[in-house]
Amino acid sequence: MERTLAIIKPDAVKKNNAGDIIAMIQQAGFKVLAMKQTRLTPAQAGAFYEVHKERPFYGELCNFMCSGAVVPIALEKENAVADYRALIGATDPAEAAEGTIRKRFASSKGENAVHGSDSVENGVNEVAFFFSESEIAANNA
Ligand code: CMP
User: Fold this and answer.
1) Phi, psi of 92, rounded to the nearest 5 degrees
2) CB of 51 closer than 6 A to ligand 1?
3) Tens digit of each residue's pLDDT (9 = 90 or more) over 61-102
4) For the chain, which domains are there?
5) How many CA atoms lie within 13 A of 100 on its CB side?
6) How far, in Å, CA of 13 to CA of 29, rounded?
7) What is the DSSP string of 39-98?
8) Can you name the residues that pair with 77 across neighbouring β-strands?
9) How far is the CA of 84 from the centre of ligand 1 (A)?
10) Is the shortest distance between the CB of 92 and ligand 1 below 6 Å?
11) Is the distance from the beta carbon of residue 91 to the nearest atom of ligand 1 less than 6 Å?
12) Which of 8, 57, 66 to mutate to test the pocket of ligand 1 (most atoms within 8 A of CB)?
């Protein structure tokens, strides 16, 4: 079993698309280990996306991720990281395949509805960024 972190981003939360996105995730066979709606501080967004610190879009990305509520979701499934990335589609919605979450809900590379972990190691670390092991255990006892 693998873990991956989904985040429903502020654009999708504002448009009331969170429920439809969660339904797509669950229908694709992912187990929701933990989930919450929260608002990131600039420091949290900066830390979460630190790997992109040198990229030209880092500031814009952090500002956007703080612009409204987000819904982080800890997911579990066999092959969760790759399967979830396939479900969400390409970063740029113009390149996202039919039937993917980003094709349906994203409007640009920045406002692209959802985040997904990009490796098995990051899946574990990003889940831990938002959820404690005791919280996950209590949810799934
Ligand atoms: P995400 O999966 O959250 O991981 C990093 C994010 O950076 C990515 O989704 C995009 O939303 C964002 N991103 C990548 N490229 C660009 C870009 N050229 N302009 C703005 N944001 C970008």
Assistant:
1) -90, 115
2) no
3) 999 999 999 999 999 999 999 999 999 999 999 999 999 999
4) 2-139 (3.30.70.141)
5) 25
6) 22
7) ---HHHHHHHTGGGTTSTTHHHHHHHHTSS-BEEEEEEETTHHHHHHHHH--SSGGGPPT
8) 2
9) 16
10) no
11) yes
12) 57
- Which residues make Cβ contacts (< 8 Å) with residue 45, sequence separation at least 6? 61, 62, 63, 65, 66
**Half-sphere CA count of 33, side-chain side, radius 13 A:** 23
Asked whether 38 and 72 are in contact (CB, 8 A), the reply is yes
- Amino acid identity, position 108: S
Distance of CA 34 to the CA centre of its chain: 13
Please report the pLDDT score of residue 63 as a whole number.
98
Output the pTM of the full model.
0.96
